[in-house]
Amino acid sequence: MSSKVEHLQRIFLNIGLLLFTGTLMTMPCGAQQAAATLNIQIDHPAHPVSPTLYGLMTEEINYSYDGGLYAEMVRNRTFQDRGFGGVAHWNIEHLGTSDATMSVDETEGPSAALPHSLLIEIKQADSASLAGVRNEGYWGMALRPNTNYKGSLYAKAGSSELGPLNIALVNDNTGKTVASTTVQALSTEWKRYEFSLTTGTIATSSENHLLLTVGHAGKVWLDLVSLFPPTYKDRVNGNRPDLMEMMAAMHPKFLRLPGGNYLEGDQIDERFDWKNTIGPLVDRPTHRSPWNYQSSDGMGLLEFLEWTEDLKIQTVLAVYAGYSLKGDHIHPGPALTPFVEDALDEIEFATGDTSTKWGAVRAKLGHPEPFPIKYVEIGNEDWFDRSGSYEGRYAQFYKAIKAKYPQLELIATAPLKGMKPDVLDDHYYKRADEFFEDVKHYDTVDRNGPKIFVGEWATREGSPTTNMGAALGDAAWMTGMERNSDLIVMASYAPLFVNVNPGGMQWESDLIGYDALNSYGAPSFYAQSMFAEFLGTEVPVSTVQGGGPRFFYSVTRDAAKEVIYLKLVNASSIAQSIDVEITGVNSVDKNATLVTLDAENLAKTNTITAPTRVAPVKSAVKITGAKFNHTMPPYSIQVLELHAK
Q1: Pick from 362, 275, 372: which is nearest to 319 by CA?
Q2: CA distances from 337 to 203, 322, 341, 427 (A)
Q3: Per residue in 34-54, pLDDT tens?
Q4: In this predicted model, what pLDDT tens digit does every residue of 276-301 receive, in sequence order?
Q5: CATH code, residues 33-58+422-645
Q6: How far are the Cα atoms of 111, 113, 114, 298 from residue 283, in angstroms, in the given order?
Q7: CATH architecture of 90-228
Q8: Domain ranges of the chain
């Protein structure tokens, strides 16, 4: 863009464009874009809208589960993150004249899955001089007034004389105990202890830590130290309510799980091995995430499935297909057979009734009802596999799964030459201008080919979460997906989550940001929510003439509700006038609803301390019926909800 045009744009922004119910009232000479003429033929439906068009995709990145959605407050609860010079996120605590050391004991643990533990050796301690360890949490521990926190731990004492274990939540700044309890006597054998900590009239804060102490010399071993706040729908081992509510606000229809690179791992033995993620936490060995931190596996397969149940959405189940990120792979044939059988077991765990082996296991874990699944994805981003083995691997999985579950739709993650999958997973990470140029990507794709799942996509602008420029790129791309929703059966933005604390991000331009205490949606979050909320059941024929180069639209209709949803995107710094004509209806109500997401410039964004700088505004507007003019403000995304008979 020339410097002269940029100068003019700055002038227009600085003088302020006055808006009233979506119509530009004044405009400097020469600043108006070419008007767009939009014709919508309601009596000519082009095709249905996919009922599962918009959904969710997550993986363990940016501390999405541990330190994010999964509500566990204790960081490094099984002491596997060793860190520099000790055990990461744990520190020894000497009070008064006490003297103690801590170390990891590789020979003592509460289970075969957790064969090690934290050993605290207390040389000197008494009731006035306690010794122990403290945990800092995930960048603090969020505490609220008059709230109950449920905890548990495994412990073993060196002798019966050790005495009680004191458990407290302590404010980082004042050193004051805000909640405390005591485990009266520790066994000399491994045992699980439950406890409860209840706060009083404290100030809401994340600047707190967990403190475990004893008042007697001796040895104590600890493992799987856990503390949970109230969770969404009071699930045991559950999720943060605020993040679940934010996902619900996106009106999703599915969750792709366990998601992305997390499925594969860097190496085969670091994949999401689902059988290691079910059952009691003490029997889950945990594993390394490909984003370079240890996953607690508290968010196991059953917890994923219950997540979809809580949000009343479908499951898109991804199964490991024999390829990992750093090139490890299994060739098709006998070596791959155990992995195929493992996938069949996984599907049976999710969908089988209690007469099946793995359905009975699920029932024993507290969920006798099967989970409904329509789509199974075979692998993830297998176009990265340079061995050329995916075609054969996919075929082997396809044949086995279809033989047992012919009703399932199977998703391929790379193009195939020898066979046509039911669905193909496409991924796109672009800048806004690239999405503007690619909006018509699917307009001419062969409708006889496989259906499309846009399983990962995002406009990568803004950090840690996206800005308004990214939201405009996202919205433009979504107009193209809606227009082609006969071909595109599902789409999910990625990544969904990011912990905004220093060190919490591995991938920038994310949708929902949070710390231990608060969360917020990026401008792109609101764009996603608007598009998913205001979505009809069919796409009518429509045409547009004129309009600026960064004007985009889509139209869907819900005939049963007699509603038309007109989505408009103006990614220009200049207002956009649109002449709309709706044909094929008897009448269009003059009372309409307008939802607007806009900003003064592309860099404007939301943050943890300013969570709603850019947020939708809903208003009632008047139109003139089936033919009307509407003017969009600069840098805006709008939905017009029209009622037509």
Answers
A1: 275
A2: 57, 10, 6, 28
A3: 999 999 999 999 999 999 999
A4: 999 999 999 999 999 999 999 999 99
A5: 2.60.40.1180
A6: 7, 5, 7, 11
A7: Sandwich (2.60)
A8: 33-58+422-645, 90-228, 253-410
